[in-house]
Specification:
about 35% helix; alpha+beta; single chain; five-stranded mixed beta sheet; three-stranded mixed beta sheet
Length: about 350
């Protein structure tokens, strides 16, 4: 029997359902992060807005409590970028998503194994207590290692480090902050054996029918097609309108393309955007250049009918919270009103006792 064909709109609605963007859901922050697997957290505030747009009755204190209880941690994960995830998932999957030690590091450096082992030994001792990354560079330099910057980066990539939470930080972590070994912070060490099959299951659960390139781009793993094929009867397969084979969990939620999609304000670096190599189902090709950034930043986006219709920015000050919305084109009056309501809600989430203002461009 031929695989069922899923239209771009079908795939869009499935993605939104898996990402908890068709309706706000009743879940704890830890459960939501486990369902999403992890949320990108280069900006400490982003995971808070990401959960606000997905969860009912979510308050900043809910996630702060999980961070300070060490149920949730900020760590370098997929694609070598900072993510917020459950402590259990960081320990279980960090080895899976981090690169092998024989890769060429940024700056074109591929250190000899003897050098790398020595750097990691020094770095492991250094980060047995919370320290910032600048300090380990100074230690390595004092011990005669050269070049210091890429070798210090090797410690960040290859050691199981998590960021120490800060009681005074508004969003649990300082933008730079201090890092320490997972075992120091959590009392447990990471799982040594990679689990690519288990990671593929978690990815599909959060993102729905996907190409191997989608899974590879999200995870950084090589041989993604073989990993997915290896799941065998656990999976259902589909085709997109271009005839490409898509893989999904058999019991995955797959709402129809006609399902209504509410207006949503996504956080910076949101996984609904970054989770697929082919983003045409959620970002129109003509709008993709408007989202590009020279420094690699992915802005907070506005979803209308499940598709990116603009970007937004929120800034909390002492007496006001300003929300600026830049739309890429005209939207219906009811959708503009819904965007404004979501913007006011976002402002109230960040600063409940402060007056909000919403401005539109476009």
């Amino acid at each position: 029997m031929a695989d069922d064909v899923l239209s771009p709109r079908d795939l869009n609605r499935i993605l939104l359902a898996r990402q908890m963007l068709l309706e706000r859901e009743d879940a704890t922050p830890v459960a939501a992060l486990a369902r999403l697997f992890a949320v990108q957290a280069q900006l400490p505030r982003a995971p808070f807005l990401g959960l606000w747009t997905r969860l009912k009755r979510f308050q900043r204190e809910d996630l702060l409590a999980a961070i300070h209880a060490r149920q949730v941690v900020r760590s370098t994960l997929m694609r070598g970028t900072l993510h917020l995830a459950s402590a259990d998932d960081v320990l279980a999957f960090r080895t899976t998503v981090m690169p092998p030690r024989d890769v060429t590091l940024p700056w074109g450096l591929r250190p000899a194994q003897e050098t790398l082992d020595a750097v990691l030994e020094v770095s492991r001792a250094h980060f047995s207590e919370p320290k910032d990354f600048e300090s380990v560079r100074q230690v390595l330099e004092a011990k005669g290692f050269d070049p210091v910057r890429p070798l210090a980066y090797a410690g960040r990539m290859f050691l199981p480090l998590v960021q120490a939470a800060s009681e005074s930080a508004a969003f649990g972590h300082e933008p730079g902050g201090e890092f320490t070994l997972a075992k120091t912070w959590l009392g447990r060490d990471e799982r040594a054996e990679p689990q690519p099959a288990a990671l593929a299951r978690r990815y599909l659960a959060a993102h729905g029918p996907s190409l191997p390139a989608d899974f590879a781009g999200w995870s950084g793993l090589k041989g993604a097609a073989a990993v997915l094929e290896g799941l065998g009867d656990e999976l259902a397969t589909f085709r997109d309108e271009r005839g490409r084979k898509l893989y999904d969990l058999k019991d995955g939620l797959r709402p129809a393309g006609e399902t209504p999609a509410p207006v949503r304000l996504l956080a910076d670096f949101d996984g609904a955007i970054l989770g697929r190599a082919d983003r045409t189902g959620i970002v129109r090709p003509e709008h993709a250049p408007l989202l590009a950034s020279k420094n690699g930043l992915i802005p907070a986006m506005v979803l209308v009918d499940g598709v990116v219709a603009g970007v937004w920015r929120i800034e909390a000050k002492k007496k006001t919270v300003a929300v600026d919305v830049r739309l890429f084109g005209k939207v219906a009056a009811r959708e503009r009103k819904a965007i404004e309501a979501e913007a006011v809600s976002a402002a109230a989430f960040l600063a409940p006792d402060v007056k909000a203002s919403v401005t539109f461009e476009g």
